[in-house]
Each structure stands twice: as C-alpha cells, then as structure tokens.
Amino acid sequence: MSLIEAQGLERRFGGETVLHGVNLSVERGEIVTIVGPNGSGKSTLLRMLAGALTPSSGTVTHAKGLVIGYVPQKLTLETGLPMSVRRFLDVPKRQSDADVIHALKRVSAETLSARQLEGLSGGQMQRVLLARALLQKPDVLMLDEPTQGLDQTGQADFYRMIEELRQELGCAVMMVSHELHVVMSASDRVICLNGHICCQGTPEIVQSAPEYRALFGTGTHGTLALYRHEHDHTHDHVHDENCAHGEDA
Asked: Where are the domains of the chain?
C-alpha cells in the first residue's frame, strides 16, 4: 500500500475553489516535489496530505501507523517569549538529550541548542524545524518551501542533506518549492500544480511538458545539471500522467 493516497481532493475557502480533482499517491523512499505559481494551492495540498487541513471533498488515506514529520514554511513566535532551541525541541513531547544532539548534528545545527529561537537566522530556524521533524522518526517528511531565504549555494546544500536523510531513514519526502533551478533535479517526481495537477512525472518529463512551460516559460532549461542527486533506480517507474490537464481554478 502507498504511504499516502489522495482521491478527488477539493478545497474551497468561502466561495473560492483553490484545488480540485487532485489524485496522487506517495510511495516509501521517493522524493516528490510540488511546484506551481503563487496561489496555485501548493501549501494547501501539503497541509491536506498531512492531515492538518480537511478537504472540502475527496479523501486522504494514510498507511496504518504512518508518522509524518512536518516542516512549516515559517513559524510565528510570540514576540519576547524566551525559548531556547533545546526547550523548543521538547514540544510537544519531551526528547532525550541524546536524541536531540543526534538530530541537531544531523542537520549541522549542533551549536544551536542553547540559542534563543528569536535570535536565529532564517536558515538556522529551518534546520531546527527539520531537526524537530526528524525527532518524530517520520515515514514521510513534509517540507513547505524549506529553502525560502537561502542563497543558491544554501539551497543546493539543503537539498543534498534531504537526499542523504531519505537514504538513511528510508522515508518518503514531499516538498513544496518555488526554487525551480535547484528543486527540479533534487526530486524523483515533480507535481506541477495550478489549482489542479497540470502534469507530473520525472523532472525531465515535467520540464518538457507544455503545461509546465506555459506556467514557467523556458527559463529553467538546462538547470537540471546544477545539482544532480543519485536517483534510486527503483523509483524510475514514477508516474507520468501524460500531463493531462483540466480547467484552471
């Protein structure tokens, strides 16, 4: 069974339909990235798949006992609330010192344990949030625009780390991103979203799809060489939806 299966997902906010007709599945060990223009429903879809948002219609099915580690796009902190990284990692469940040290070290943030959250840079905060997700020992790691605010080198480093974590943990990874110049080649499968799934498949398939080019132009041509992870050939069967498309929301 797939780790996550979604059928006929639709989400409405008031009278506006943000997403409709979304069918997808997530398999263990694959890296799936959701791309699309602003307002295309990327974060909404990720939150529905995580169970943080209820679909207006359709279903999301999780494999029995599924554990999801979720890294939000940003964390809003109460101004002036003193909280160290170490204390933050004990929320909502107290963690052992050994587990915390291991998680922080794994994301190259071991020096941040005693730091206050409000003093962290954007990149440091993303690493702390990732460490918190890793402490859950996830079957699926979900990341909502995790490299926002990082420069190109920082983005490439982050995606290399995600690839290593996928290999070590054997987990699936789902990411939302608008950093096309890196993320396309950091994925086994790309889902192009614009209120519905415009097309999906390997990065090469999606990049050459008319629907993708209509949304993003040809400016990303050739960028697959920027960062190439070693694809696990067991995932070469990833879905090609033949870029079937419907009405834009």
From this structure: 1-67+139-249, 78-137
Question: In the structure encoding, which two tokens stand for residue 114, read together?
Answer: 């005693």
Can you tell me the distance from the alpha carbon of 197 to that of 20, in angstroms, rounded to the nearest whole number? Answer: 9
CATH class of 1-67+139-249: alpha beta
Half-sphere exposure of 100 (CA within 13 A, CB side): 18
Length of the chain as a residue count: 249
3-state secondary structure of 222: coil
pLDDT by position in tens, the chain (length 249) = 899 999 999 999 999 999 999 999 999 999 999 999 999 999 999 999 999 999 999 999 999 999 999 998 877 776 667 899 999 999 889 999 999 999 999 999 999 999 999 889 888 888 999 999 999 999 999 999 988 877 878 888 888 899 999 999 999 999 998 878 667 778 999 999 999 999 999 999 998 999 999 998 865 443 433 333 333 333 333 333 334 333 333
For residue 12, the tally of other CB atoms under 10 A from its CB is 14
The neighbour count for residue 248, using CB atoms within 10 Å, is 11
- Cβ atoms of 206 and 200 closer than 8 Å: yes
